[in-house]
Please model this.
Amino acid sequence: MKRIICFLICLLMLFSFVGCDSDTTPVLSGSYYAVGDYEEMLTPYLSLDTDNNEFRFGAGSVVSYQEYGSYKIADGKIIATSQSTTFEFEIKDKNTLILIDNGDNDFFKIPINTQFVYSEDLK
Model:
């Protein structure tokens, strides 16, 4: 009987330490804006919906064209896939993403290594 109780206590302790941080997402849901010398309404943005793993990526709020689709997080990167291309962002921290692959987008080209910072303000 003592062995069973000891085994159950050890098992309980093992499960209490496993997966403590697995539910946290390394990015925030909302909009990230490109850092640079952009006009106010022409600032490139990446919007993430962490609940549904969906994204929207555009050249500015007054530009009607935007890419949208789903994304996944792997190896510290966001891999965002639309119907026409795939973008990759390095996750520097929760508030900063770095564009490392612009895909083969014909409508707008954002320079590689452009930083996108999280903002609750609309631009």
Notes: The helical segments are 2-17.
